[in-house]
Amino acid sequence: MALTVEVQLALRAAEMPSTSQFAHWARAAWTPAASDAEVVLRVTDDAESRQLNCRYRGQDKPTNVLSFPCDAPPSVVPKLLGDLVICAPVVDREAQEQGKASEAHWAHMVVHGMLHLQGYDHETDRQAHAMEQLETDILTGLGYPPPYLDDESL
After folding, report:
1. Which of 27, 73, 105, 135 is 20 to 30 Å from 65 at the Cα level?
2. At 12, phi and psi to the nearest 5?
3. Model confidence, pTM
4. Are 122 and 87 a contacting pair, CB within 8 Å?
5. β-strand 37-44 against 3-9: which pairing, if any?
6. How many helices (H) and strands (E) does the chain have?
7. Segment 23-59, tens digit of pLDDT
8. Tens of pLDDT along 83-93?
9. Torsion angle of C-alpha atoms 93, 94, 99, 103, degrees rounded to 10
10. How far apart (Å, rounded) are the C-alpha atoms in residues 75 and 81?
11. By the 8 A CB rule, do 81 and 119 touch?
């Protein structure tokens, strides 16, 4: 089944990936279901990310990626998988601070967000380990280094 990725750019960052790269990473992290699906990926600035993070997570600061899974009634099979909101300035700052290639960190944020849209989480150590291992497998399969090099649990 196919995944349609709509990319919305609220700003343009210097080292921002192309819309085709965003779609490629999202599809790499998608586990096809019984039907086609859609995801909206929006790239924002600090102000929009902060507003959304405050409203939906109670944290008054911008964050790297927010995932909003589609909340359809159980009897409805939604075509919309959900929305991802990625904050360009935060992703760029994190890549620099962590000494990671910008493209690899962008890919990680898309993969991480897509896994959240599909029900993965990292609330417990066990969930975190499983999600981190899956992220690592997807990203290394795409040719990027493992994103959790400093994590001794992997």
Report:
1. 73
2. -120, 125
3. 0.90
4. no
5. parallel
6. 5, 4
7. 999 999 998 765 788 999 999 999 999 999 999 999 9
8. 999 999 999 99
9. -90
10. 15
11. no
CA distances, 115 to each of 49, 61, 83, 138 (Å)? 19, 23, 12, 11
CA 42 to chain centre: 10
In the block, which residue shows the tokens 């989480």?
121
How far are the Cα atoms of 28, 78, 129, 139 from residue 132, in angstroms, in the given order? 15, 27, 5, 10
E strands present in the chain: 3-9, 37-44, 65-69, 80-87
The most distant pair of C-alpha atoms in the chain lies apart, rounded to whole Å, by 46
